[in-house]
Amino acid sequence: MNRAYARRAMASATTLFVCLLPALAAAQTDLGPEAQWRFNRGLSLVKDNAFVEAAVEFKRAHEISGSFSVLLNLGQAHAAAGQPVQAVEALGQYLRDGGAQVPQVRREEAEALIAEQEGRIATIIVRCDPSGAEIRVDGNQVGKCPLPGPVRLVAGSHTLAVSLADHKPQEHKLELAGKEQKVVDVRLEASGAAAVAAGQDASAAPTLVSPSGGAPWWSRKRAAHLVGGIGVASLAVGAVFGVRAITKRLDSNRHCPQDQCTQEGVDLNNQAKTAARVADVTIGVGLVGVVVAAYLLVRPGGSSTTSPGTTAFGMDLCPELGPGEAKVALRGTW
Predict the structure, then answer these.
(1) Listed ranges 111-125, 190-204, 296-310; the one with the highest mean pLDDT
(2) Of 17, 144, 149, 279, which shows the fewest CB atoms inside 10 Å?
(3) pLDDT-derived band of residue 309, with 50, 70 and 90 as boundaries?
(4) Which of 177, 152, 156, 137 is nearest to 86 (CA)?
(5) What pLDDT is attached to residue 252?
(6) Does a structural domain hold residue 212?
(7) Residue 197 placed within a domain
(8) In whole angstroms, what separates CA 190 from the centre of its chain?
(9) What's the pTM value of the predicted model, to 2 decimals?
(10) DSSP 148
(11) Which residue range is the domain that position 283 belongs to?
(12) Last residue of a domain, one of 118, 139, 162
């Protein structure tokens, strides 16, 4: 806590207590023997500026007697001790429990002190992953995450510690101003056996890539254009050689009357066969290229994964070329 603030609060509260001592002492006559002794001891401690000890005595007097009027002394002692959160709680309870019994002058004093102390309080909201972590502020346990609500602290420096079994603990240094609200997000990492177990769980779940997966859409589209272009060019070449084979065959027939061919007729017939074979191969390649290109363009894009116990399935077109032949094979997995 800021020392200057503590000195100002102590001086202010001391002045207030000195002014109120006669009236407050006279007012407490129905507390019972022990509670009255605790209350009087609290007043003596106030005169010695021992506000923390005085707050303890006032709190005990209230617990024994149940008298709401002691809460005013308790709130003032907390304020003088630099404990604004406890001061606001005690003073608020004083006004609630006292209700219409609280004299107007005391109500105004309590409300003014509450407003002053609220300006020295900051609020933090702690969010944890995973839940169940223990939260401590300045070494004091606050609760476990998720907390039921915000944590109110006196403005200044604080240390927030978060810990959970089998996880690495974290510590956060906080600098809080009056009336500031701060959200602290904490993500704890698994450590030791928990980390090993987590790694084993991840590695024990292999994924099966479906054959329907493949390259990204943009690369398959480029491949489709390339293969399709080759296919169309092959079809064009095949058509040219097909026409050439027909022409050579017709010329050969003219030189082979009654199946008796001249040497020129034999040569023309051989040229026709060669052109026909070239036409067959190039047209086959062209058809395969066009079919593959169309398949690449219309098949679903992206890749998919299948968890264990689920069968991967898909189909693929596979061009196959051989001596004097070209074909497309359909392969699938179910």
Answers:
(1) 111-125
(2) 149
(3) very low
(4) 152
(5) 72
(6) no
(7) no
(8) 16
(9) 0.52
(10) S
(11) 217-333
(12) 118
Residue 225 in any domain: the answer is: yes
Dihedral of CA atoms 164, 170, 173, 174 in degrees, nearest 10, equals -50
Give me 239's structure tokens: 């058509």
Return the pLDDT at 173: 95
Q: How confident is the model at residue 140 (pLDDT cuts 50, 70, 90)?
A: very high
Give the single-character DSSP code of 333.
E
pLDDT at 210: 44
Q: Which of 148-152, 194-198, 270-274 has the highest mean pLDDT?
A: 148-152
Residue type, 164: L
Q: Looking at residue 334, what is its pLDDT?
A: 43
Q: What is the DSSP letter of 210?
A: P
| Strand, helix or coil for residue 144 | strand
Integer CA distances (angstroms), 202 to 164, 195, 199, 272, 310, in order: 22, 11, 5, 65, 17
Based on the structure, what is the number of domains in the chain? 3
265 in the same domain as 186: no
Q: For residue 194, which amino acid is it?
A: A
Coil, helix or strand for 68? coil
Q: Are strands 170-176 and 156-163 parallel, antiparallel or unpaired?
A: antiparallel
Last residue within a domain, chosen from 118, 148, 166: 118
- What CATH number should be reported for the domain holding residue 40? 1.25.40.10
